[in-house]
Amino acid sequence: MNRDQMKRRSIQQKIYCRWKTKIFSLLLLSFGFGSLLLMHTQYSRINMFMLFPPPFVQMPKIALLFIARNRLPLDIVWDAFLQGQEYKFSIFVHSRPGFLFNKATTKSAYFYDRQLNDSIQVDWGGASMIQAERILLKNALIDPWNERFVFLSDSCIPLYNFSYIYDYIMSTSTSFVDRSETSGSNSTWSYNAGSSFADTKEGRYNPKMDPVIPVHNWRKGSQWAVLTRKHAEVVVKDDTIYPVFQQHCKPADGSKEHNCIPDEHYVQTLLAQEGLEGEITRRTLTHTSWDISSSKDRERRGWHPVTYKFSDATPMLLQSIKDIDNVYYETEYRREWCSSKGKLSPCFLFARKFTRPAALRFLNTSVLAFNGGLIKA
Ligand SMILES: *[C@@H]1O[C@H](CO)[C@@H](O)[C@H](O)[C@H]1NC(C)=O
Ligand SMILES: *[C@@H]1O[C@H](CO)[C@@H](O)[C@H](O)[C@H]1NC(C)=O
Ligand SMILES: *[C@@H]1O[C@H](CO)[C@@H](O)[C@H](O)[C@H]1NC(C)=O
Ligand SMILES: *[C@@H]1O[C@H](CO)[C@@H](O)[C@H](O)[C@H]1NC(C)=O
C-alpha cells in the first residue's frame, strides 16, 4: 500500500465515521420525536376518554334480592362488600309498601331507590312471603344481565369478598337450593345446625294439596336459595303450585293444618314438581343457627333462628362458620360435602342473623375486612 492509498483510506474512514455519527444523531432525534408523538397521542386518547367514556361495561350480574320489613340495618356492611364491583351486581329490595330507600333511610348509595314499587304486605308464615319472592324475581328478570338470583334477609351478611362469592356462584350452572325429602324423616334435630332445621313429625304437608302436589314431591329446605335464570323464570311463571300454597298455607293461627311455612317449601317443591332437581346443588349458601332450647313451648321449639348480638360477634364465631365444609342431614342420613370448582370448599357464603352492632364489629376484624379496610363508625 502506498502513501496515496493510505491517505485515501483514512479520508474514507473519516467520512464513514462522520456519517455514522450523523445517522446515530438522526436516530436519536427521531426516537425522541417519536416518544413525544406517542405521548401526545396517549394524552389525546385520555382526552378522548373523558369526552367519550367507554361503552357501559356489560357482564353477567348477580341480583341481590333483599327481603326486609323496613330499612336494611346492615347496609354499611353490604356497601363495603360491594365497593368497586359496580358492573357485577344489581340490587332489589322488597320492603313494606311505600317504604323508600333514600338519604334519610340508608347510609349506602347502592340502595337508593332500589325498593320495588309493587311490593306487598308480608304476613310472616303466610303465602305472601313467597309472593314477595316472586315479585323480587319478576323485577330482577327484567335485566337480561342478571344471571343468578340470591335471596337475602335484612339480617344477613356476606362472609367473603365479592370476587370470591361471585366466582363460587357463577362457577356452576346449578341453583343452590337446600332440599330434603320429608318422607321417612325421624323428627330429630339436624346435627349440624348449618342449614337444615328440624321438621316436626306431623309434617306440614296438607293432604288437601293432593293431587296437584303429590306428597312425594313435597320438599322442605331453607328459604335462602340462589337461583339460576332458568329456575327464576320457572318460579315467576308458576301458576299451578303457588295458588295451592295460597289456598292451604295461612299464617299460623294455632291450627296445625295451616301451619305449612310456605317459604321453606315452595321453591323446593316447585322444582321437584317440574323435574328440575337434577339442576340444583342441594344445599343453601346461607348459614343459620337454630336455637333448640330457646322456647319452652314444645311445638314451637327450634323454630327460632339465633340472632347474634355485639357480644357474640367475635372473630372466632365467624371463623367457625366459615370453616364448615360439610352438612349432615340427619333426617336422610346424608352428609353433604361442600365443593366449588371440584374442590372441597366452605359451605357458606352468607350468614344470618346479625344485629347492626354485631355486623359492624365484624367489619373491623380481619375475618371480614372487605377491600382490606376498616370502616368509619
Ligand atoms: C314501577 O316501576 C316500573 C319499572 O321499574 C315502571 O315501569 C312502573 O311504571 C312503575 N309503576 C308504578 C306504579 O310506579
Ligand atoms: C378474596 O377472598 C379470597 C378468599 O378468602 C382471597 O383468596 C382473595 O385474595 C380475596 N381477594 C381480594 C381481591 O381481596
Ligand atoms: C333418627 O335417626 C338417628 C340417626 O340414625 C338415630 O340416631 C335416632 O335415634 C333416630 N331418632 C328417632 C326418634 O327415631
Ligand atoms: C373500627 O375501628 C376503627 C379504628 O380502630 C374505629 O375508629 C371505629 O370506631 C371502629 N368501628 C366499629 C363499628 O367498631
Automatic annotation (TrEMBL):
<keyword id="KW-0472">Membrane</keyword>
<dbReference type="InterPro" id="IPR044174">
    <property type="entry name" value="BC10-like"/>
</dbReference>
<dbReference type="Pfam" id="PF02485">
    <property type="entry name" value="Branch"/>
</dbReference>
<dbReference type="InterPro" id="IPR003406">
    <property type="entry name" value="Glyco_trans_14"/>
</dbReference>
<keyword id="KW-0812">Transmembrane</keyword>
<dbReference type="GO" id="GO:0016757">
    <property type="term" value="F:glycosyltransferase activity"/>
</dbReference>
<keyword id="KW-0808">Transferase</keyword>
<keyword id="KW-0328">Glycosyltransferase</keyword>
<keyword id="KW-1133">Transmembrane helix</keyword>
<keyword id="KW-0325">Glycoprotein</keyword>
<dbReference type="GO" id="GO:0016020">
    <property type="term" value="C:membrane"/>
</dbReference>
<feature type="transmembrane region" description="Helical">
    <location>
        <begin position="21"/>
        <end position="40"/>
    </location>
</feature>
<protein>
    <recommendedName>
        <fullName>Core-2/I-branching beta-1,6-N-acetylglucosaminyltransferase family protein</fullName>
    </recommendedName>
</protein>
